[in-house]
Amino acid sequence: MAVRDPMDVATLKRLHSRIRACTKCVAAGYLAQAVPVVAGRITDRVMIVGQAPGIVELTTRMPFSGRAGAELRRWLARAGISEEQLAYRTSITKCFPGKAPTGAGDRRPSPAEIALCAPWLEAELACVRPEIILLVGALAIARLWGPGALGEVVGRSRRSPELNDALLIPLPHPSGASRWLNDDANRGRLHRALRLLGRAWQALPSLDAAGKVHSRR
Ligand code: SF4
After folding, report:
1. Is 133 within a domain?
2. Is 15 in the pocket of ligand 1 (CB under 6 A)?
3. What is the pLDDT along the chain (217 residues), one digit of tens a residue?
4. Does 192 map to a domain?
5. Nearest CA to ligand 1 atom 2
6. CB under 8 A, 24+ apart: contacts of 155-161
7. Model-level pTM?
8. Of the candidates 78, 86, 112, which has an alpha carbon nearest to the alpha carbon of residue 193?
9. What CATH number is given to the structural domain containing 15?
């Protein structure tokens, strides 16, 4: 990771202000209300990309602050990442999309909403330049990993030359609405993914206060 320019801090702050003021999906008629949610620092070395905020985040305005977020934090703890080391947290679309018409979980954002929101994620990735990117759920996996069923990609990792060689690690969505983890084989895949994350986290070179790289040895 390169030494971060103080200008980057100002750039990210400006980007967050622009994201939080965004109402593109309201103007386009896809949402009745826009409450964009994003959080993180320029120094965050892990970025978590989820699907979209849930109803709890509508009030807290903090990503992953609902039940799914609590489960995700338990997963991160299994990988050795604690609450205070929590990563940059964002999503494919940044506003609560409403409940699914079936009543099971939240509505999946439409391709049109995803396209409207995509420039924000691209700007965040370019500004923060994370070293590890956790792809939480099918939408984030499809966007940054490419096509592949959850069972084919969870438990694997790969570097992305388009994203400064960041290590991509797919995870299932931690929402209770997902039945994917009811299967033993899938729980094994999640276990492998968290082991990969733990190893990648441990392998990150340590940085001093100025952001300079030091060997952990
Ligand atoms: S989902 Fe994204 S593009 Fe749509 S209003 Fe919210 S921040 Fe803007």
Report:
1. yes
2. no
3. 555 677 889 999 999 999 999 999 999 999 999 999 999 999 999 999 999 999 999 899 999 888 889 999 999 999 999 877 778 999 999 999 998 888 778 899 999 999 999 999 999 999 999 999 999 999 999 999 999 999 999 999 999 999 999 999 999 999 876 789 999 999 999 999 999 999 999 999 876 555 555 544 3
4. yes
5. 117
6. 155/188, 155/189, 155/190, 155/192, 155/193, 155/196, 156/193, 156/196, 157/193, 157/196, 157/200, 160/133
7. 0.91
8. 78
9. 3.40.470.10
Domain count, the chain: 1
In a domain, 189, yes or no: yes
Measured in whole angstroms, the distance separating CA 161 from the mean position of its chain's CA atoms is 18
Find out whether the beta carbon of 72 lies less than 6 Å from any atom of ligand 1: no
Q: Is the CB of 167 under 6 A from ligand 1?
A: no
Domain assignment of residue 110, given as a range: 6-204
Neighbours of 11 (CB within 10 A): 16
Q: 22: Cβ below 6 Å to ligand 1?
A: yes
φ/ψ (deg, to 5) at 46: -115, 130
Asked whether the beta carbons of 168 and 125 are under 8 A apart, the reply is no
Which strand (E) or helix (H) includes residue 9? helix 6-20
Ligand 1 center to residue 39 CA distance, Å? Answer: 15
Q: Does residue 105 lie in a domain region?
A: yes
